[in-house]
UniProtKB/TrEMBL annotation:
Record PANTHER family: OXYGEN-INSENSITIVE NADPH NITROREDUCTASE
EC id: 1.-.-.-
Domain of life: Bacteria
One Pfam family recorded for the sequence: Nitroreductase
Name recorded for this polypeptide: Oxygen-insensitive NADPH nitroreductase
Protein species of origin: Levilactobacillus zymae
Family assignment from sequence similarity: Belongs to the flavin oxidoreductase frp family.
Any one GO molecular function term: oxidoreductase activity
Domain named Nitroreductase: residues: 11-164
Swiss-Prot/TrEMBL keywords: Flavoprotein, FMN, NADP, Oxidoreductase
Lineage summary: Bacteria, Bacillati, Bacillota, Bacilli, Lactobacillales
Residues in the signal sequence: none
């Protein structure tokens, strides 16, 4: 079973090398419009989008993320949780204040911003663009908040480098569905599971054979490496959330 939408979704790969061509104003408007038509929790539209075009600010983003290639993208978006706007649009009462500062509404804003991000990715790919979603903007949240003068009840969640691809990476194999799609009851998985062992072998072959950045790697080794990173690198996230007025319940 296939159609153009499925074909676009199943052909996804992250793009980190772009041509020099910048996105047009029409393309940017189209992508933002696609984001606006994504679902939002209770139709509260609890997110905003920043377009970053200032080269100096893009350079700071390169420092924060450790990925200066983002400066060469056709465009750069930052997706924000935004409850500040809704705070300004309604009469303030103890109940509205409690809700706006709650964990529940923070999660709703994260859902809204994340779903909007994926809508832009898919819309961009349908237009022949490529992109990479970047959670690495969270490496230094206080600096990001200061850089973009973010008011209370806003929080940066994801960056998105998007543009005209200058590469076409091989398609990276995903987990077998049996390891991540269950019926009615969660099924615990261990490293000894035959499907995990087979997936490790498949991913090892992929990394050995791909065109760029070949290396010895399996999925379980990749996970171990990721989970061995210094947790202090992003230790400021909780404090920054509270500073921005979230998690007050």
């Amino acid at each position: 079973m296939t159609n153009p939408t499925l074909a676009t979704l199943l052909a996804h790969r992250s793009i980190r090398r772009f041509t020099d061509e910048k996105l047009t104003a029409e393309e940017i408007t189209t992508l933002v419009t696609a984001a606006q038509h994504a679902p939002t929790s209770t139709f509260s539209q609890q997110y905003s989008i920043l377009s970053v075009t200032d080269p100096a600010k893009l350079a700071v983003l390169g420092d924060i993320t450790g990925h200066h290639w983002l400066e060469q993208a056709g465009h750069y978006f930052i997706f924000l949780v935004d409850l500040y706007r809704n705070q300004e649009l309604v009469p303030q009462t103890p109940t509205t204040a409690a809700n706006l500062h709650s964990t529940d509404k923070l999660l709703a804003g994260i859902f809204d911003a994340t779903i909007a991000t994926e809508a832009v990715v898919t819309a961009g790919e349908s237009l022949g663009l490529g992109s990479t979603i970047m959670g690495s903007i969270l490496n230094d949240v206080p600096r990001l908040i200061q850089l973009f003068e973010l008011p209370e009840l806003t929080f940066p969640i994801l960056g998105l480098a998007i543009g005209h691809p200058a590469e076409q990476p091989e398609h990276k194999p995903r987990l077998p569905q049996e390891l991540m799609h269950f019926a009615n009851t969660y099924r615990p998985i261990t490293a000894a599971d035959p499907q995990v062992v087979a997936y490790d072998a498949l991913l090892k072959h992929y990394y050995q054979q791909r065109t760029a950045n070949q290396r010895e790697e399996t999925f379980t080794h990749h996970l171990a490496t990721e989970l061995s990173r210094d947790p202090q690198q992003r230790a400021g996230i909780l404090a920054a959330l509270k500073q921005q007025g979230f998690l007050q319940d």
